[in-house]
Amino acid sequence: MNLANGSLPINCSTIRIVRLAAIAWMIVAVTFVRATAIASAADDRRPPNIVVILVDDLGWADLGCYGNTFHETPSIDRLASQGMRFTNGYAACTVCSPTRAAMLTGRYSARLHVTDWIAGHNRPKAPLKIPDWTKQLVSEEVTLAEALGAAGYVTAHIGKWHLGGEGHAPKDQGFDVAIGGDHRGQPPSYFSPYGIPAIADGPKGEFLTDRESSEAVKFIAANKEKPFLLCLWHYAVHTPLAGKPEVIAHYKEKARRENLSRNATYAALVDSVDQSTGRVLAALDEHGLTQNTLVAFTSDNGGLVLRDVTSNAPLRSGKGSPYEGGHRVPLIVRWPGVVGPLTTTDVPASTIDFFPTLLAAAGTAPPKDVTIDGVDLSPVLTRSGNLDRDALYWHYPHYHPGGATPYSAIRRGKYKLIEYFEDRPVELYDLAADEGESTNLTEQSPDVAKDLLARLTKWREAVGAQLPMPNPSRKAGG
Asked: Which H helix or E strand runs over 364?
């Protein structure tokens, strides 16, 4: 046996042993690859989890990822960096209840006749009498929860509801789990005791946004083995404004240090939503669900500019108005492996699109016997094509302290037209050149205005929109 060169002697037995070992390792490797592929295929066969975070009254310019340098929103900004941010995301209405109904059904609020916040403003001496609109989401409508429940999803609604009371609550509309939602549009208190029958009070002083996210985290943990729909619809950032004292103090000091006039309590409320979002994202990470979960984040209408709550600049006005500040909202979608990170789009999208988009993601289709106004956003999310849509529409036959008198509106391409009903004036804006809607182009572009007005009139007729009428009880000159 010659070991002078430090090598082992090689013979047939040694070669055979080496070959057998190699074959064994090859079998192990192939088995592992096949097992991984099977596991991957199984994951592919499982529909994605869906999380919809809806914030109440959050303005288009309230987040860091939309240019706000005062509010601190690192968790939401991270969500945006990991997915697609829409710069022309729209709420279906300038107030909350109609937008929520549209999200759950994929149908315009004008078609549903749910056209104002429930129960709306009473203006008995106004020039126009508002129509007899519907003050709940009726049970005959097929909701997102019902459609996904039929496809095997477990469904939960946590937070604000505001689509009707007894007989029209979340569990009446297909949700398996319902925590916190009732007929009201704002919480009696952001601190426990909350005074909300649908959510048990926590320790004294517990903050409502924290409680909502805690319930969301519990739901995720309890249902991690099955596909789920989680609708986390925050009461924040709706009035009455409130925040944790230490967070308010932080923003007051920041405003003083930067010599800014900002609402520190509102900033603290926005901050609570960001913290909640971070907790939900962390729960998805903890349970290994991030890669197979679609997360959508948006608001139900523009930010409230009354009483210096916030600013939607450079957009005009805010909640309760027909202008961009009343309708345009943050819209973010993260879906790893489907939606690319760090992507943005200027394609207009609306709350009505949630229903068909999320059903498509789940591999199921909307009911065939129901007219769906929204479109599947998949071609935009995957950058694989264009949307099959000509225009977006709004219809608000009501009055609102935010500046609205009864109106309808259409956006087609770069143009937006608003028709007011009191004396039928029309306003036309080029949003590409004038997103602040400062220059009415009806005289400069009469053909465009005429065409859009005709389309708007035809759409109202098609959806059966209810119209305001002259008020017979209004005294002359009153």
From this structure: none
Q: What is the pLDDT of residue 45?
A: 65
Q: 379 exposed, middle or buried (CB, 10 Å; 0-12, 13-18, 19+)?
A: middle
Nearest to 149 by CA among 76, 64, 47, 69: 47
List of the chain residues with pLDDT < 70: 1-45, 475-478
- The radius of gyration of the chain from alpha carbons, rounded to an integer in Å, stands at 27
Whether pTM exceeds 0.70: yes
> What span, in angstroms and rounded, lies between the C-alpha atoms of 427 and 452?
11
Q: What backbone torsions phi and psi does residue 350 show, to the nearest 5 degrees? A: -135, 160
Token duo for residue 14: 């040694």
Count other Cβ atoms within 10 Å, centred on residue 285: 12
In one letter, which amino acid is 282? A
What is the total residue count of the chain? 478
The structure tokens listed for 62 are 């309230």
Residue 330 buriedness (CB in 10 A; 0-12 / 13-18 / 19+): buried
The position carrying tokens 């935010």 is 402
